[in-house]
Amino acid sequence: MSSAYPNPTDHNASREPLRQPFSVADDRKLVFWHWPQHAGLPRLHWAHATGFHARTYTPLLDRLSGNWNVVAWDMRGHGASHAAALAQKLHHWDTYYRDLTQWLDEQNEPVWLAGHSIGATISLVAAARRPGQVAGLLLAEPVLLAGWPRWLVKFARLAGATARLPHPAAARARRSHFPSKSQAMNVYRGRGAFATWPDEWLAAYVAHGLIAEGNNFRLACSPAWEADTFASVDPDSITDIKALQCPLLVLQGTRQSTVFDRARAGLERRAPAARFEAVANTTHFLPMEQPEAIVRGLSGLFAEAS
Fold it and tell me: Which whole number is the average pLDDT over 145-164?
């Protein structure tokens, strides 16, 4: 990585992250995972995709922790924050935006934000709401709606039919219980959303994405909560961005990307520092398929800002 990075105080420290609770405004507790922290390194927060959790990205975050003070949350309803799901139905991603901006408000220096899918979108909106608290942004396959996808979501919302959209419907139908984690691995391997994942990524997802329940294991993020998260997608995430000046890199897949051309144009108008990079031979699951693109992208952003 770039020589612009300060050197960590102990390269040989364990990469095992520490679990730290964080109370949000409605008195729910979220879990933030802190990889080994070293004096002088820049701080980076990673936000995961819908249905996953922070430690799904262990193969990437372990790699980054040599040059960054990595923090990654399990957003409410996911992973170790599964108990923080709202009692009522989730209606808008603003719930997630408020959670991350509250965490930013309690940091004593600007941090870097990065994330995947919804995690990228949450990071973008949080940076727009707290520009003085964010040093730079890397967004991997953010969910940015414009044109007909945006109006489809708006119409479905007005009609009370968001649960019938493809992603919420598929999430609600997910299998939620397994007799063992190894059986879950066998079910997921090479299929659906996991089709392009290396085994180490799938193992990281299963290890912390299922929790014991009696003699079985169940998904920490329930299919109902995952479906509600998809159904409550923010169609106006771009239009809510007024002027974002920090360094910003958007990495997008070359197949099945959620970065639409009109959305890209809208973000470019509102964030003049934004750069876009298509990563060859990747899909929406770019971080799992090409994690080195994330490492290189962050290195370049840091060097640009230094």
Answer: 88
